[in-house]
Automatic annotation (TrEMBL):
This is TPM domain-containing protein. It comes from Caenorhabditis remanei (Caenorhabditis vulgaris). It comes from the Eukaryota. Residues 1-18 form the signal peptide. Pfam families: MOLO1 (PF17175). InterPro entries: MOLO1. The keyword Signal applies. Keywords: Signal. GO terms for cellular component: acetylcholine-gated channel complex.
Length: 214
């Protein structure tokens, strides 16, 4: 009986420890490679949701926006390939995340773009309901600006509207890299010359009439 109790206690202890375990930088599944099923995707993609926090439609909505994010962040007026290339980005979810985890995972997956370094991550931490961003220093994504954009979505993140928050963040980051067309000032037309001509014609007519009656 004692042996059975000890065995059951060991099983419960192992289960409890397993429940508290979370992914590490080395063990987190990469959705672009063979671990996409663990990320709850049907095929290789850019989103990893191992706990099924989002619905399938939400995962693919974010995935689609990440695919278009590359083209939206291209800089077409640059001739150099790396300067012109858009930025690849991925979105992952973890129970307990941090800025260190985001930076570490990005570096661990840095082979996604070794040539140009145009790669970054958005990490959703469920424990503190926070989003951490990490982009390669060679990327044109400004980290201070990114953090400011993430802060504007804090209410959506804290209330669990993760898909809304992430799609808004991606849109704002892409828009911030699109140069705005400068406004053109239309010079007001002047009627001075026209007025002078009209006055001259009127003067000639008046002089002719005056001469006729004389």
């Amino acid at each position: 009986m004692l042996t059975t109790s000890a065995l059951l206690l060991s099983v419960f202890t192992i289960s409890a420890l397993g429940a508290d375990e979370d992914y590490t930088v080395d063990t987190y599944p990469n959705p672009k490679k063979g671990s996409y099923k663990e990320c709850n995707l049907r095929s290789a993609g850019l989103v990893c949701d191992p706990y099924e926090t989002l619905s399938e439609s939400e995962r693919y909505r974010i995935n689609t926006q990440l695919v278009t994010f590359v083209t939206k962040t291209e800089v077409n007026n640059n001739k150099d390939f790396c300067s012109k290339k858009g930025t690849d980005a991925m979105f992952v979810i973890i129970n307990k995340g941090s800025q260190d985890f985001a930076d570490g995972l990005r570096q661990h997956w840095s082979n996604i773009d070794t040539q140009c370094g145009r790669f970054g991550l958005l990490v959703l931490s469920l424990d503190d309901r926070s989003v951490y961003g990490s982009f390669d220093e060679r990327s044109p994504i400004n980290m201070i600006q990114l953090q400011a954009i993430i802060a504007t979505e804090d209410n959506h993140i804290k209330t669990g509207l993760y898909t809304t928050a992430i799609t808004n963040i991606l849109k704002e980051v892409a828009d911030s890299m699109t140069p705005q067309n400068p406004g053109t000032t239309i010079k007001p037309q002047t009627t001075t010359k026209s007025s002078q001509i009209q006055f001259s014609v009127f003067s000639i007519i008046l002089a002719s009439v005056f001469t006729y009656f004389l």
